[in-house]
# Entry
Amino acid sequence: MRIGSGFDAHRYGEEKAGHRIMLGGVAVPWQRVVVAHSDGDVILHALCDAILGALALGDIGRHFPDTDPAYANADSRQLLRACVAKVAARGMLLVNADITLIAERPKVAAYVDAMCATIAQDLGVAVDQVSVKATTTEKMGFVGREEGLAAQAVVLLANCVGEQAGSRL
# Structure
């Protein structure tokens, strides 16, 4: 078994009426832009880092550098699927993923189920193997001042030997 953890943060940019940001592969209404090279999905970026960490392959920046124009405005779901392919190539499966969004706003309770379903689809696992939750920092720090948002993720991977819990990636 292997455990990986990941973290990502992005700052907020300008306000745009009717704007949406990507969180967990789901478009969530929010009037602020997320400043990022890709689509800025902190949930999926933290998850990619957790998967890559469990495989001892470094971080998302090593595999999808923000200096490479090929990843400008990239769909983070594609980056996640590329990380999933690395898991399968190593003969492993994902047992579970636990992800926490850290943001004062936007409020995401209405979108959590869709995020879990989207992430589970990209991971190739059952939805009950994915947990997404959100918390605030009680108005402390850059998140509390609503300067940005962050996410952390933990994954458990297991070797594909015999019949183990989880689904094949």
Q: What stands out?
A: The beta strands are 2-15, 20-23, 26-29, 32-34, 92-102, 130-135, 148-159, 167-168.
